[in-house]
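seq:
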Amino acid sequence: MKTIKRVWIISFLTIALLGYGMMTNAFAQSSEMKIGFVDLQRVIDSSGEGQRAQEEIKKKAAELEVKAKQMQDDLQALKTDLTNKLGMLTPEAKGEKRDEIAKMERDLSRFVQDSQSELRLIEQRALKQLLEEVGKLVVEYGKANNFTLILEAGSILYGADTIELTEDIIKQYNTRVQ
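struct:
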């Protein structure tokens, strides 16, 4: 029984000392760690380059919207024309007008779908380019300022304001791009 107690005490002390050693090591490492985070969405939205990309997308969307509106107006005019002349047209002419209306409706629908796809593609390309540039800048910033780890704000539940680097990254990005 004494032997079992003795083994248990030695085991407990060994584990306690190892645990203390690991905790001391962990605390020593944590004091050397430098961690920060960046809100990439805010960098993109607030940077001059991000705002320029958003303006280009808005401009393209407005152009496509004008064209879609013109197509809708033409379609509505054709429908009104058919309604006004319905009693005067032959059955063949009515059929041709209805076919023309159906074709214009299909064309408008396709145009709207294609426009939405085109805008998404333009937005994805711009976002990809911006993220690549900002990503490189964050890596350079981290190395230059001896950071151990820089995280993206979207995956953080809590981060003290003192370790947020977003404003610094925005300033450096705007300086670099201009």
